[in-house]
Amino acid sequence: MKKYGYVRVGAAVPKIEVANCSYNIDSIYELIMEAEKNNVAVLTFPELCITGYTCADLFYQATLIDECEKSIQELLDKTKHVDMLIILGAPVKVNFKLYNCAVAIYKGEILCIVPKVFIPNYGEFYEKRWFSAADEIGRISVNYCGQDTFISTNVLMQHESIKDLCVGIEICEDLWSPIAPSAFQALAGASIILNLSASNDYVGKSENRKQIIKSQSSKCICAYVYVSAGFGESSTDLVFGGHSMIYENGDLLAENEKYSLDSQLIFTEIDLEKLSAYRQRNTTYADCQSKYDNDYEKVYFNTNIDIGNLSVNIDKSPFIPKNENEISKRCSEIFNIQINGLAKRILHTKSKSMVLGISGGLDSTLALLVCAKTCDKLGLDRKIIKAVTMPGFGTTDRTYNNAVKMIEKVGADFREISIRDSVIQHFRDIGHDENNHDVIYENSQARERTQILMDVANQENGLVIGTGDLSELALGWATYNGDHMSMYGLNSSIPKTLIRYIIKWAADYEFKNDIKSILYDVLDTPVSPELLPPDSDGKISQKTEELVGPYELHDFFLYNVIRFGYKPSKIFFLANIAFKNEYSSDIIYKWLKNFYFRFFSQQFKRSCLPDGPKVGTVCVSPRGDLRMPSDAAVKMWIDDLEEITF
Question: Is 21 among the residues known to form the active site?
């Protein structure tokens, strides 16, 4: 699994007894053993977990401090052969000062000790009564548990061979400071931040805690492992719920259930390659690196754990939110982005009409709906929409009837212009046999339709509204200077899988009874350009997904290629997990290879795309998101695929 850049990290909440170090170390050791069974490579425990956070004035007692050190020594002896970076919370006395620390251990050795920088002394917190702040501690050599080590705030834990596995530590309040130490640690290269916390709970605090951690993980482009003290801490005035969570660049990957009476362990995989890709693309991150002192000392560890099967979910539909409420919000926002983009273009060009071809398929349906709502927003009569049906050799009754009904229900101006005679005449002009259903037969129809739309736009002082979507553009599934061209590409950054959801949302919430049944039938119609004659039953014979592959696969490929720059072999690996119940490895391999060939060879079409509104993080506009040579070689990507054995 290291081959694909994954590392398994964990957060452990031991059940403790206040000031009972022996009991606590046994509880901690049990969790370490559980984590080892689950191939966890990096494991962190809560703040002051050896003694308990709520010891209060007992921190003045030499008995407690000495027993804490002895308990850690016992744990070091027990974990000499445990291949895991383990971080423990403990009070450490240095030069007559007591520090609230994280002790980093690996295979029985103390790598370093990291003190808490910001000591809270407000509200229910009064840590300055016992602990010193570490903001000016520098680097102090210490002998702890019989080992020569050091205590410092400027230290990171770096894996010896996995360059992207670098661990930083901060403790509780450090995160709540205006500028958290983790920001500087991330700029110095830390990809994983561990936070040892003892955060008490009250109504509403957990949501605020999650928001802060989500934000810090996102701003620092890192994984953030947060673990808090749980059951067993004193409840004299406070209750500690043991709230723990793991975020990756703003995404919550794992979270425990608060208020458990038992010890808890959560773990998940962090995708180091993904974090590296985000940081590489984000030039602001690099700019910040150059502005701040990133002189951190590094200590090294070398875990060699194969995590086996991934426990993290691989989303097979990365463009689609996971619950109905989020889907509705996403569709609404995209729909309004499209409306606002089109409205600006209409006002700027002083256009008197919107011209678009309506086929009865998904893409033109969405474009028609957006045009209708744009008219409403601008206070314009929907009759300025010149909706043109252009029946050809492959048009079926089902799509034709849906197109006509939609246009009428929406209230657009309906025109029907058959392309049959003009295309047949064109075949005669160039000497093509109309019975030869080759690429000339297909593309001539697409170009004829585009010419008609352009001419109508000239007649009506309007704009041709393009309907092609992101998935088609990624594959080059468009006729060059045919449906590839328009004056504004309304759907150009929306993938095919998401368009289905937007149309369904529009049917349910925006248009409802007006055309709901028609829209649902459009959703149920096979995707097709309808350029070849129907079958003997008058049904669609040319089905796009049988020719280029399932769009759900291609959208999965596209998302991971553009967003993260993964190698083909990793995308194949992830696709096999995501679609294990739907497609065989052979099928996934076939269409992934096809995707790369088409993605590279068809860039020339994307290099001259019309304007269109960006709605998400994955986009192929040549003016912004995808600046790719039209003649780049695909060989290395195919070579990587061909090395796969399965």
Answer: no
